[in-house]
Amino acid sequence: MSDTSSPSEQQLQETAEACCQAMLKGDGLTNALNIVIERVAHCSSELSMTVQDWMTNGHKTCHGGMIFSLADSAFAYACNTENQPNVAASVSIDYLNAAFAGDTLTASAQKTFQRGRTGIYDVRVENQKGELIALFRGKSARIPGVIIPGSDITKN
């Protein structure tokens, strides 16, 4: 790929998948929570998690920290699809409905804005019935380096 050409859709998808696999190898929390990466694409992702009994709080609802972790992981995988590492600069979450043990939660993340090193990503967390559980917004900051060392797969 030359510096003057734009990557094809296939190249963008292959890059997203390669970055996802590279990150997943070292992602202890996503693995510990049994979060499943359902889909990853250029600047977007969809992850799911089944709420376990140990993830509930004293009200017998899913602990907000578990929902946050799922949304934050979806944000991380969406903003790291171009072989350029990004970290969270700030995030916010609004909890809209309760989730319970046995529920399968799906977090869908999508880039909303990008300028320079800063990106804004919105994440919707829904249960298996399609009910909206939480809305998460993350601001990413690009940091130096690459996700896949020695690779020339980057977005121009």
Task: Furnish the topology, listing elements before pairings.
Layout: H1 9-25, H2 28-32, E1 36-41, E2 44-50, H3 64-78, E3 86-95, E4 104-115, E5 118-126, E6 132-142
Antiparallel strand pairs: 1-2, 2-4, 3-6, 4-5, 5-6
Describe the structure in your own words.
The chain is an alpha+beta fold. The protein has a single domain (9-142), classed as Roll (Thiol Ester Dehydrase, Chain A). It contains 3 helices and 6 strands; from the N terminus they run ααββαββββ. The protein has helices spanning 9-25, 28-32, 64-78; strands at 36-41, 44-50, 86-95, 104-115, 118-126, 132-142. The chain has a 6-stranded antiparallel sheet. β5 and β6 (132-142) form a beta hairpin. The model has no long low-confidence stretch (mean pLDDT 94).
Task: Provide tags for this entry.
156 residues, alpha+beta, Thiol Ester Dehydrase, Chain A, 35% strand
CATH-assigned homologous superfamily: Hotdog Thioesterase
> What proportion of the residues form beta strands (DSSP E)?
35-45%
Total tally of structural domains: 1
Rounded to the nearest angstrom, the distance between the terminal CA atoms is 10 Å
Estimated helix fraction: 10-25%
Unreliable spans: none
Radius of gyration using CA atoms only: 16 Å
- Major sheet description: 6 strands, antiparallel
Tally of separate helices: 3
Give a count of the beta strands, DSSP E runs of length 2 or more. 6
CATH class reads Alpha Beta
Report the CATH topology name.
Thiol Ester Dehydrase, Chain A
The arrangement of helices and strands along the chain is: HHEEHEEEE
Assigned CATH architecture = Roll
Structural class based on helices, strands and sheet pairing: alpha+beta
Indicate the overall shape: elongated
| Lateral arrangement of strands in the main beta sheet | 1-2-4-5-6-3
Question: Overall mean pLDDT score?
Answer: 94
